[in-house]
């Protein structure tokens, strides 16, 4: 790891940290715990699906890379994919397409020598049991996809769905996004999944 560590966090509103009164989200809580000097770029966009992230990642991340720096990418997609379409006809992005989109991002990152990590999709409380069931079906396949590529994967979905702080804060807010406590819990799960080791050991 060089002195110039750059991390792009890309995904949806859970990456962005929507609902956090401190505007830190989980990246802003995980990084200080590690005590590592880092330039962090939060590229989370509300309502983005994996298809949206696939369309924009190369340009947005590419503009933030620097030759000679330790450039990293953290991706989290799937929560919005599993939400129903406006007409209720099914998920916004199907299971197979979500996996294909994630694979395309990871393979593109590998092509340019960018080390990546994936954080599983947090549950949307107001999405109900059907949404959670879709995510719990998606997560093992995301994990397997990452394992095939040697990419670390943080499994957070079930733990957050069963976490009283996450669920209570989301329910008290907009039904989806927690407050400071929920994002703190998400940061703890990502750290427990080896986020610090990934930063320390590189590829």
Q: Supply Rg.
A: 16 Å
Distance between the termini: 10 Å
Large-scale geometry: globular
Helix content estimate: 40-55%
Number of strands: 5
Low-confidence stretches: none
How many distinct helices? 9
**SSE topology string:** EHHEHEHEHEHHHH
- How many structural domains in the coordinates? 1
**Strand fraction:** 5-15%
CATH secondary-structure class:
Alpha Beta
Query: What summary fits the major beta sheet?
Result: 5 strands, parallel
Structural class, by secondary structure, is alpha/beta
What's the CATH architecture name?
A: 3-Layer(aba) Sandwich
The CATH superfamily bears the name SGNH hydrolase
CATH topology: Rossmann fold
Read across the widest sheet, the strand sequence of neighbours is 2-1-3-4-5
Mean pLDDT score: 96
Task: Describe the secondary-structure layout.
Elements: E1 5-11, H1 13-16, H2 27-34, E2 39-44, H3 50-62, E3 70-76, H4 95-111, E4 115-119, H5 128-149, E5 153-154, H6 157-161, H7 164-172, H8 180-192, H9 195-201
Parallel strand pairs: 1-2, 1-3, 3-4, 4-5
Helix pairs in contact: 2-8, 3-4, 4-5, 7-8
Keywords, separated by commas or semicolons:
203 residues; alpha/beta; Rossmann fold; 13% strand
Question: What does it look like?
Answer:
- Strands 2-1-3-4-5 form a five-stranded parallel β-sheet, with helices on both faces.
- It has a single domain, classed as 3-Layer(aba) Sandwich (Rossmann fold), CATH 3.40.50.1110.
- Strand 3, helix 4 and strand 4 form a beta-alpha-beta unit.
- It has nine helices and five strands, in the order βααβαβαβαβαααα.
- It is 48% helix and 13% strand.
- The protein starts with a strand and ends with a helix.
- By secondary structure, it is of the alpha/beta class.
- The model has no long low-confidence stretch (mean pLDDT 96).
